[in-house]
Every structure is written in structure tokens, then in C-alpha cells.
Design goal:
With 338 residues, this protein is of the alpha/beta class. It has helices spanning 42-45, 53-74, 94-111, 120-125, 171-181, 188-196, 220-232, 238-264, 279-291, 301-304, 309-320; strands at 11-16, 21-28, 32-40, 84-90, 115-119, 139-144, 149-156, 159-165, 268-272, 295-297. It has a five-stranded mixed beta sheet with strand order 3-2-1-4-5, with helices on both faces. Strands 8-7-6-9-10 form a five-stranded mixed beta sheet. The structure holds 5'-O-[(R)-(carboxyoxy)(hydroxy)phosphoryl]adenosine (KG4) and zinc ion.
Length: 338
């Protein structure tokens, strides 16, 4: 039976396989989370100290149906009751994206369910929408993840202006590389975060790459500074190195965010991405928001790292605007948010 747009709750199944997590979620009307299932591949990649793309896509193939099935079951719904399927089509690892997109297209075709595609960054921007309060437009969006560190001005759904981006490593990438240097395993962010809480952030004066006159970021020099410190510096505890490194990252992210808020004359800030789970960054941005009298929206920890709730939340808006896609949808590894 062909589906029609109705006044009933729009039930969106979100799917994200952009990197190393197989995720599916059911969200009603872009804000009410009915289920959120993430199958992590951390155990597979840990021994390599980073993600092995071929292993990631193979695992997605094994997990995609069980994960989607569990998402539908915990939401107490079924395919025939869905309004649409929202799938992430990039940016990300191409082999991983292919699994999610092929699966979503197959189900959409077989069960005649409308399909929408969502840019992963757009998903992160909308990760703070499910919940009680949503930011009004315009707002400033700081995305800090393993693959991206960017500032966007968001004037409405689909209206994104990039204000700055990383010129080399993303913040999460710097965390992961520094954790590897320190032998803390993968992913490095949570490990550094917990060591940092027991260390002295003033122990080592690591560089703060502020790049004056620009809202761009650069973290690769900071990572090299930590490598050099480990080779030539005075011996200090791992806790102090983590705390000092984290302080540099947080100082840069907070300063750039404050510049952007002032430049754009915006009083609303949304923060997202895996590094938004960082305790030091959450505290420091909370202080900034209070000083600047700015409303801050930051998702709970499980919606900071990759998840499909954010894909379903952004997908809801595509669906409402009838921006459906066909079976010719192809994933794209490098996909700017325009
Ligand atoms: O958003 P995400 O799950 O994936 C990407 O889209 O990249 O972010 C993953 C990144 C990893 O680099 C991980 O080390 C970092 O987020 N991360 C953290 C924390 N939790 C995860 N970084 C700092 N502190 C954390 N608590
Ligand atoms: Zn992400």
C-alpha cells in the first residue's frame, strides 16, 4: 500500500554506518527517541590502535540487520509503520557507508518506504534536537569529533554557513594520536579525559594554536609537541601530560567559539561530536556560555559520539520537506555540508 503523509507522528528509522559503529534508531517527530541501538566495533579495532576500514565494513554487514531489528523491536514498531528511513550517505569510510546505504535502499524498495539521505555533519548538528528543548535559529554549531572540527552558523534547516574548520587533524584525531603515543589504547578521548581529571593542567605549557584572524583550527602541531615532549622533556606523570594536552585543546576550542559567537552576534550555541563528551570541554563551554549570556545546547554523552538518533532527527526535516531520494543514492566519502 503506498504511504501517505499524515498528521500522525512521523516515525523515522535512522541508520548510520559512516565509521566503526553500526547504529539504528527510531525517532518520532524529530525529537522523541523511541530507540537507540549502537553496536560498537571498539574491540575489533583496539589492537590496531585505530580503525581498519576493511574490518569495519565487514562487521557492518554482519551487524546491520540485527541492529535495525533491535531498534524496531525496542521502539515497539515495525517496518510497515515507519514514515521514512533516513540513512547517512557521507562523509565517512566509503566501504562502511556503502553497507548502510545499500541496506536502506533495499528495505525502502522492498517495503515501499520513503528514503531520505543525511550528511553525517548535519546529523551531529541535529543531535541536540531530540529532548525537551531545541535551539531556535540562528545558532552557532561547534562540531568536534574524530573526523571533524568545525564551526557553523545555522540559520534554519538546510541553511548552514561554515565559519571555520580544521586545517589538519580534527580534535578527536589529536586525542586518539596522543593516546597512542602514551600507550592508552583506542579510542583515546575517554582515556585521556579520565587521566586528565587526576593531573595538573598547568604542568606543561603545550602550544595553543589560535591562528589569529581565523576561525579555523589546527591540532597537528600540538600532537607533535606532545611527541617531542615525550622524547626530550622532563619526565612527568601521564596524568599531567593528559591534563596539559587537554587544557590546550579546550582553550583553543573555547576561544574560537567565543570569537565566533561575538562575530556572528549569536546568543545560542549547540555543541556536538564525540569530543563534546569531554568533561573538561563541557565545563569550560558551560562557563563561556554563562559569561557570554548564551544559551548552550549539548547532547547527553550517548548522543555526542556517533549514533543514528541524530540521523533520524535530521532526516525528519528532509522528510517534512519532501526531500526524498531514489535508489540511485550513492555514498560519498568526502561530502561537504553545503
Ligand atoms: O563523533 P564521533 O563518535 O565520530 C566521528 O564522527 O568522528 O567521535 C569520535 C571521537 C574519537 O576521536 C574519540 O576519541 C573522541 O570522539 N571522544 C572523546 C571523548 N569521547 C570520545 N574525546 C575527548 N574526550 C572524551 N570524553
Ligand atoms: Zn560523527
Amino acid at each position: 500500500m503506498p504511504r501517505v503523509w499524515t498528521a500522525m507522528a512521523a516515525l523515522i528509522l535512522g541508520i548510520d554506518t559512516s565509521c566503526d559503529d553500526t547504529s539504528a534508531a527510531v525517532v518520532a517527530d524529530g525529537k522523541e527517541i523511541r530507540s537507540n541501538i549502537v553496536s560498537s566495533q571498539e574491540n575489533i579495532h583496539r589492537k590496531y590502535g585505530g580503525i581498519v576500514p576493511e574490518l569495519a565494513s565487514r562487521r557492518h554487514i554482519e551487524m546491520i540487520w540485527p541492529v535495525v531489528d533491535e531498534a524496531l523491536r525496542s521502539a515497539e514498531t515495525k517496518l510497515d509503520l515507519l514514515s521514512a528511513i533516513a540513512v547517512c550517505h557521507g562523509p565517512g569510510l566509503i566501504g562502511s557507508l556503502l553497507v548502510g546505504c545499500s541496506f536502506a535502499k533495499a528495505v525502502s524498495f522492498a517495503r515501499d518506504i520513503p528514503l531520505v539521505s543525511v550528511n553525517h555533519l548535519e546529523g551531529h548538528i541535529f543531535s541536540c534536537f531530540p529532548g525537551v528543548e531545541q535551539p531556535d535559529f540562528p545558532f552557532l554549531s561547534l562540531i568536534v569529533s574524530g573526523g571533524h572540527t568545525s564551526l557553523y552558523r545555522v540559520d534554519g534547516f538546510g541553511r548552514y554557513k561554515e565559519l571555520g574548520r580544521t586545517r589538519d587533524d580534527a580534535a578527536g584525531e589529536a586525542y586518539d594520536k596522543v593516546a597512542k603515543l602514551l600507550g592508552l589504547g583506542y579510542p583515546g578521548g575517554p582515556a585521556i579525559d579520565s587521566h586528565a581529571q587526576q593531573g595538573n593542567p598547568g604542568a606543561i605549557d603545550f602550544p595553543r594554536p589560535f591562528l589569529p584572524e581565523s576561525l579555523d583550527f589546527s591540532f597537528s602541531g600540538l600532537k607533535t609537541a606532545v611527541a617531542n615532549y615525550l622524547k626530550y622533556g622532563h619526565p612527568v606523570s601521564v596524568n599531567d601530560i593528559c591534563a596539559s594536552f587537554q587544557q590546550s585543546v579546550v582553550d583553543v576550542l573555547v576561544k574560537k567559539t567565543s570569537w565566533a559567537l561575538r562575530k556572528e552576534r549569536i546568543k545560542r550555541l549547540a555543541v556536538s561530536g564525540g569530543v563534546a563528551a569531554n568533561s573538561g570541554l563541557r565545563r569550560a563551554l558551560g562557563r563561556l556560555a554563562a559569561e557570554e549570556e548564551t544559551e548552550m545546547f549539548i547532547p547527553p554523552l550517548q548522543l555526542c559520539t556517533d549514533n543514528a538518533v541524530m540521523i533520524a532527527a535530521a532526516g525528519y526535516h528532509h522528510y517534512m520537506m519532501r526531500k526524498t531520494v531514489g535508489l540511485d543514492l550513492n555514498p560519498v566519502a568526502y561530502l561537504p555540508l553545503s
